[in-house]
Automatic annotation (TrEMBL):
InterPro entries, alphabetized: LpqE-like, Lxx211020-like, PCuAC_sf
Protein name, as recorded: Transporter
SUPFAM superfamilies: DR1885-like metal-binding protein (SSF110087)
Residues spanning the signal sequence: 1-19
Domain of life the protein comes from: Bacteria
Keywords linked to the UniProt accession: Signal
Length: 150
């Protein structure tokens, strides 16, 4: 499993305690022609308590943090303002759960493409930190079933 470790304020002259976030197995679901939205998925582990507070990509007009959950026997998806990242605990963004929703796609995303994605994290008591990734696109249909990209 590939991991990217981030300490995002390395240009600060004075030593400060920085949040480190490990991002692993990041991927974006491929699309078909005229599809204008898709999901991004990954695992996150923060060294200290914090939150994922924002995401953006030049490939989409908007990127939102979403959660899916059952309400009265119906699966509902809704935007959330921030995703809590408890220190040392893996937070999984996956189909059917927390995920990033890319909307207003500027072009179809095909397996093998790389999509620039910026994540903004904020640790308790710290300034926001931006992490820039190039996220691979996985096939729309994969071994894991419709849309799981696995």
């Amino acid at each position: 499993m590939k991991s990217i470790f981030v300490a995002a304020a390395m240009l600060v002259a004075a030593p400060v305690a920085l949040a480190q976030v490990a991002v692993s197995d990041a991927w974006i679901r491929g699309t078909v022609a005229h599809q204008t939205a898709t999901g991004a998925f990954m695992q996150l582990v923060a060294e200290r308590d914090g939150r994922l507070v924002e995401a953006n990509s030049p490939a989409a007009a908007q990127v939102e943090i979403h959660e899916m959950r059952m309400e009265n026997d119906v699966m509902r998806m809704r935007r959330i303002d921030a995703l809590p990242l408890p220190a040392g605990k893996q937070v999984v963004l996956q189909p059917g759960g927390f995920h990033l929703m890319l909307t207003g796609l500027k072009a179809p995303l095909r397996e093998g493409d790389k999509v620039p994605l910026s994540l903004v994290f904020q640790a308790d008591g710290q300034a926001p930190q931006t992490v820039r990734l190039d996220v691979p696109v996985r096939a729309l249909h994969g071994k894991g079933g419709l849309g799981h990209g696995r």
